[in-house]
Amino acid sequence: MEPEKYTIALAGNPNAGKTSLFNALTGARQHVGNYPGVTVERKEGVAFYQDIPIRVVDLPGTYSLTAYSMEELVARNFIVGQRPDVVIDVVDASNLERNLYLAVQLLELGVPVVIALNMMDVAEQRGTRIDVAKLARLLGVPVVPTVARTGQGIDELLEQAQKVAERQEPWRPLVISYGPDVDAGLEELTRLLEGGVPRQGLVDARWLALKCLEGDQEVMDLLADYPELRQKLEPVLKRVYAHINSTLDDDPEGVIADYRYGYITGIVRRAVETKREMRLNFSDKIDMVLTHRLLGPVFLLLVVYAIYQFVFSASEVPVGWLEGFFAWLSSTVEGLLPEGPVRSLLVSGVIDGVGGVLGFVPLIMFMFLAIAVLEDSGYMARMAYLMDRVLRIFGLHGNSVISLMVGGGISGGCAVPAIMAARTLKDPKARLATIMAVPFMNCGAKLPVYGVLIAAFFAGQHAAMLFGLTIISWVLALLAARLLRSTLLAGEQSPFVMELPPYRTPTLKGLAIHTWERTWRYIKKAGTLILGISIVMWALMSYPGLPEQEVARWQARLAAAGPAEAQQLQMDMAQARLAGTAAGRLGRALSVVTAPLGFDWRTNVALVGGFAAKEVIVSTLATAHSLGIDDPEDSQGLAERLAADPGWGPLKAFALMIFVMVYAPCFPTVVMTRKETGSWKWALFSVVYNTAIAYGLSLAVYQGGRALGLG
Ligand code: GDP
Ligand code: MG
């Protein structure tokens, strides 16, 4: 017999119809043997597609590709070791959800797959309607409906398999998210494995890392041959394992399986319509309400609003304590040290600057706690699922939602990991649009800015204001993305699966760890980066000082003044000194541009500093407003000082909040954009695009407000 051109392997759950399909494909041309060394039956035969002989191997029936049973191991080793040109996964259409578990594992492995959607007759009888084209689009592989018993669909199946085999495409593993904890660990392990060989050119590093996390004995045994790598891997694996265990109260294997099912649920919800009632599990029942077309979005908005209420009411008192503490600290230091640059640096630069940022730790912490509850319970995935429908209208989809959420979709995120999360978007244009949309979100660093301005000018309306700002940021992000998608980034949309992992009850320990991890990052940033920039900003706002004869003139006037005028004179002197410093000159130079927005020179300086990190806006404003005051008795916080300043008002504050929300992403975000897009072009574009939009909006808000008599 002539040699076969291609090899097809048949995989599938037991009783999905593999043998029936095998017989229909090969007829009598088959022989039976054993896999070497084991008593698992091996059937092989030859099929013909237009005179092309094709070798067909019937793999043992399995539910999974773990290494638990002999059958699973044999099936997996055949695929990995023999690398068939295509695997036909025989899926029982009447039991789709369960059968897709193996399909997803095959896709994760990366082998080219064609799905035989078998038992279509049974599925139809049961009233299950499957949108085959949609299923194929979502899975990203050909899907052919078959009835193996009657031979229906066999020709089409063989044709599709032959086509895929012919293409000889390299394996392309499906990347799905297993949640933030597993994903982070997975990435770390993948990096180690990429450096360290044992892929043997057969499977990719992420898959190996996944198997390590799943505790796959076979893969661990393989690694035993690489002692050096194993030595590096083991402590990381242990740490990741322990972290997942303590935060999610489950081993990685269980979490990974949950997310795999979440992926399948996301597919089935979209592609399958079941007429008669099917058995619903706990998560399905909750989802009847929470992902309902009408009730879902209403509930989502209520949840977000409730979170803001909770965050502000819970943090109000502790934020007050911290503000009081820093005010006490600065007046104490002020009383202890003689007047001079050291005192000024410590009080105005360090304590008022960094304190202004640290004062918001309770607010940030409660926000992170709320986000941890959403993530750990599985509701965050539902929010993304609901938003996905809206996002498609704006040319974004799928993981865009995840990115926007991570970037601060409900306030309190960070654009840097959000831009990295966009990696899972396969469509390059949608990915770019997502990266450009992320900086509009209200990241954790913008929160203190809002916090100060809301406290100063919108007291008592904390939750409503933040809710409004959230809505505005989403609307702007989506419009900005839509604009790009219909101009620079015009193109088709590709389908994307929204994962719906089962609901879990968050554990207290898990919530505590997740909240603390992020809060600590904020505190650390305040103590390092923000501290450093605060000192620089203080220096820029202190030097060069006034010329000596100038100082002498002021002092003479002060000496001559009565006690009533003295205070005013002191403030005027401080103003004159500030105005002459490097920052003062820069800020005033910028006033030409920002005056129509209502920003004074201090705000300009703060915004320039905010390019390094948005928290710097608060610390710089705090320093600038504390430098103007030379009174140890004065222990007001920044919000009180702004509220008392006649140059400020609600309209100005609102225009500034909009500007801060939208203008140039911070420097780390720009660097990450450069890294992820591979060019400075997009990084610079985001700076210009966002700043231009911010300028236009703030101008409209401020001038419009004034025209309406609001400011
Ligand atoms: P395997 O365990 O995957 O090899 O499954 P088999 O090929 O042995 O099939 C299991 C049972 O399902 C047998 O009784 C088949 O006749 C039956 N079967 C296979 N395909 C179909 C189909 O498309 N429709 C129906 N109604 N029955 C099928
Ligand atoms: Mg069989």
Low-confidence runs of at least 5 consecutive residues = none
Judging by the overall fold, what is the CATH architecture of the domain at 6-167?
3-Layer(aba) Sandwich
Bound molecules: guanosine-5'-diphosphate, magnesium ion
**Rg, nearest Å:** 31 Å
Q: From the helix content, strand content and strand pairing, which structural class follows? A: alpha/beta
How many helices?
31
- Oligomer state equals single chain
Label this structure with key terms:
Rossmann fold; 9 strands; about 700 residues; alpha/beta; binds magnesium ion; single chain; binds guanosine-5'-diphosphate; two-stranded antiparallel sheet; seven-stranded mixed sheet
What would your notes on this structure say?
Among the domains are: 6-167, Rossmann fold; 180-274, Helix Hairpins, CATH 1.10.287.1770. The strands form 2 sheets. Strands 2-3-4-1-5-6-8 form a 7-stranded mixed β-sheet, with helices on both faces. It has 711 residues and is of the alpha/beta class. Helix 17 runs antiparallel to helix 18 (415-421) and helix 29 packs antiparallel against helix 31 (680-707). The chain has helices at 18-26, 70-82, 96-109, 120-125, 132-139, 154-167, 180-195, 205-213, 217-223, 227-248, 252-271, 282-290, 295-336, 341-358, 361-377, 379-393, 399-409, 415-421, 428-437, 446-457, 462-485, 508-542, 548-560, 563-580, 582-594, 601-609, 615-627, 638-644, 650-662, 667-677, 680-707, and strands at 6-12, 30-34, 41-49, 52-58, 86-92, 113-118, 128-130, 143-145, 272-274. The protein contains 31 helices and 9 strands. The protein binds guanosine-5'-diphosphate and magnesium ion (MG). Guanosine-5'-diphosphate binds at residues 12, 14-20, 61, 118-119, 121-122, 147-149. Magnesium ion (MG) binds next to helix 1.
